[in-house]
């Protein structure tokens, strides 16, 4: 009887275990996945604006280094650094005693030749002098006059004059120094207008043309922005650096700028068209940046590279289509391939939502939350 009781107890335990296992198998059934509510916006495609910076150096519109025409002892220096001088104004005088004597001697020779020719012509009609003697007298007078002009030119060269109006710079010449035609005296600059020369990359050669306006900022006053106008570009591209020189002009009527100053040159050009998304759509992870786009009612992770930023939006490079919608709110709640539910952002106007699979577009009512399952457009 005890054995029968044990067998009955074992059978009951087996039945209970079977029922429990069956109940557990039912609880392991996968629950239905819930769609995550998100806000999405259309992807824009805009041309990327590339901003290019270069360093330029200013030079005077007209500039010259001054040298003496001949060697000699300096008698006087007639200018001070920074002076504004007029064209033809004397800057330096050399000892000219020998040259003055040469002029005096040439003047005497001219008078003698002129007097001799006059005597010849007075007796020409008497036949006492031949025609060849008269011609020789005329030649002697012309030669004497040429010698006088040469002596006068050599005397004038003993005074160094300004070749044009402008500001003169420093000099290392003092009275008593000896100079020659290779000794620099000073530099004169006409700086009412300055030229800024700067290198530009070969890629923008077709974008910089005479007359174009660009912005330059002097390093001496970074807060000041000056409109410079492109004057010309170099005729060739440098083979080693693959750039070319651009010359732009800037006004300097207030004389606040100087030749040799450095300028930051900024200009832009339109680049290739790229997808543009709001900054809040960018998600950063261990593999870099990515965004989530809505495709077939699911969130699709798309790796992107940021190429530029502009006023709260970013230009991206990646497998983003022009008809994509990018998730801008709720990006932290979704994962790749997850079902999503498009909702309208707060305080927004009703938007048109396309329900995937229905083949119809529905206008969200003002009282509805704008929810829909599928790819919102």
In words, what does this structure look like?
The chain has 377 residues and is α+β, with helices and mostly antiparallel strands. Among the domains are: 115 residues, conserved putative lor/sdh protein from methanococcus maripaludis s2 fold (Beta Barrel); 62 residues, Orthogonal Bundle (Helix Hairpins). Helices cover 21% and strands 41% of the residues. Strands 2-9-12-11-10-13 form a six-stranded antiparallel β-barrel. The longest helix is centred in the first third of the chain and has 26 residues. The chain is rod-shaped, with a radius of gyration of 46 Å. It starts with a helix and ends with a strand. The C terminus is likely disordered.
Key features of this structure:
four-stranded antiparallel beta sheet, disordered C terminus, six-stranded antiparallel β-barrel, conserved putative lor/sdh protein from methanococcus maripaludis s2 fold, 41% strand
Highest CATH level, the class of the domain at 36-48 and 272-373: Mainly Beta
Lateral strand order in the biggest sheet: 2-9-12-11-10-13
CATH architecture of the domain at 36-48 and 272-373: Beta Barrel
Share in β-strands? 35-45%
CATH topology category name of the domain at 36-48 and 272-373:
conserved putative lor/sdh protein from methanococcus maripaludis s2 fold
The radius of gyration computed from the alpha-carbon positions, rounded to a whole number of angstroms, is: 46 Å
Shape: rod-shaped
Head-to-tail CA distance between termini: 79 Å
Largest beta sheet, briefly?
A: 6 strands, antiparallel, barrel
Mean pLDDT: 82
* Low-pLDDT ranges: 15-31, 351-377
β-strand number: 22
Instruction: Figure out the total of helices.
Output: 3
Query: In which range does the helix fraction lie?
Result: 10-25%
Order of helices and strands: HEEEEEHHEEEEEEEEEEEEEEEEE
Structural class: alpha+beta
